[in-house]
Every structure is written in C-alpha cells, then in structure tokens.
Amino acid sequence: MLQSLRRAAYRVYAHRLRTQLSDAGLPQHVAMVMDGNRRWARQMGFDDPKIGHRFGAEHLDEVLGWCAEVDIRHVTVFVASVDNMRKRDSDEVDNLMQMIENVVAERLSRPANHWQLHLAGRLEVLPDSTRNALKLAEEVTRERACKFHLNVAIGYDGREEIVNAVRSLLEDEARAGATLDDVGQRLNADHIAARLYTGGQPDPDLVIRTSGERRMSGFLLWQAAYSELYFCDVYWPGFRKIDFLRALRSYSARHRRFGA
C-alpha cells in the first residue's frame, strides 16, 4: 500500500514538473556525463561494482525515452574517455565494453528504435568486437527517416577532437593547393566546428553530469563553450525522471548569456 502511494505521488510530482516547462524554453541538444555506475552498485549492496555498468547501459534506453517525450532531438552521452580505456582495470574495461556491445549497440539496432547513432571518439582504442558492434549499429541506423540523433562519445578526448579537426582542415586545404598563409587568412571557428564529431548538429544547450562531480573531464570542450551546466548528486543508474525534469526546469529558468 505504501509503495503504491509513493508511486502515485511520484507520478503526480513528475507531471507537475512537466507542466512547469515551456516547450519553447527546452534545449534542442542535451549532453550527459553518465557518471557513478560503480558507486551506485556499491550503494545498492552489490558485491561486484562492475554490475553498475549493466544497469547504467540499460538506463540509457529509459533516458532517451524521456528526451523523446519532450522532443529533444539531439543527445550526446559520454561513455568512456581515452584515459578510462588506458588506466582502468582491464576486467572493468572488458565488462564495460561488453555492456556497450550487448545493450547499447544491440538495442539501438532494433527496428523499433528511433534514434540515429553517431560515434564520437578514437574507435581504434576499442576492442575489435566493440568497435565492430558500434559501427554496425551506426550503419543500421544511418538510413532511418528519423529526427532523433544520439552521439556516443567513447574512446573520447575533447582536446584530441579539436586537434583532429584542425588536422583535417589543414589536410583538406593542402589537397586543394592552399598555403598555410591562405588558411590563416580565411580560418574561422565554423571551419573547425564542421570537422568535429558533432559537425552539422547544434551545440549542446545543456550538459548534465551525474554523481556529484563538478567538472567537465574533457567532454565537448569546443561544443560546450556556451552550454548551461547542471550537476546532479545522484549516480547515473539512479538518475530518475524527476531529476531529468528538474535539470530541464533549471535550464528553462536561466537567462543564457553566450559569454556576454
């Protein structure tokens, strides 16, 4: 009985939060640092903290559903950095990669899924099976006539992304016969932005980080220059719809200054 009352109260509160949001004041693009999987598993009493990665991977499905409900059409999630791949225990990395293959890539590939996948990061640092699963999912979703776009940042480093974008620009210009002086005279921010992993998509309006950490950890360093930041104390698998709606409410109440 008590549990039923709590669920009813939760639904009422979530509905109240949603009614406080103006569709015109919602972000077009939300980026999320999905942090705290292992700490959540320990908090929940699991003997193996790596179990948190499975719950975290499965939770992404639910969060994407919340985004679709309010017509947020661009989402970027930070799954793992290059440093995560290199420095964490190999068993933990293997477990995380299996969750990416068996949960994220597999579910995105299903015909009923309406998200188009875009990959962001150095795929060469991933295990072959993970890289192949993600590339297959990207290919499967590429031709979908859909309006929802999901960027998965894995094997990602924000500084390397910018360096690679500049390198790509210089290589393109060199093939066209331009000199460095020519490039220097014409170079502007749009030229670099077009060559980032998210090229052609709007920059994130809102960046949410779970787990209580208050730093960007190299995530979308270029794209998030004018993003609103929201730090949430709950761990990613425990990130509830009301936490998501509170983040949107906070965003809609802010006056964006874009650096001014």
Automatic annotation (TrEMBL):
Residues binding substrate: G36, N37, R38, R39, W40, H53, S81, V82, D83, R88, R209, R215, M216, S217
Gene Ontology molecular function terms on file: ditrans,polycis-polyprenyl diphosphate synthase [(2E,6E)-farnesyl diphosphate specific] activity; magnesium ion binding; Z-farnesyl diphosphate synthase activity
Pfam families the record matches: Prenyltransf (PF01255)
Listed cofactors: Mg(2+)
GO biological process: polyprenol biosynthetic process
Classification lineage: Bacteria, Bacillati, Actinomycetota, Actinomycetes, Micromonosporales
Gene name tied to this protein: uppS_2
Top-level EC class: transferase
Protein name, entry field: Isoprenyl transferase
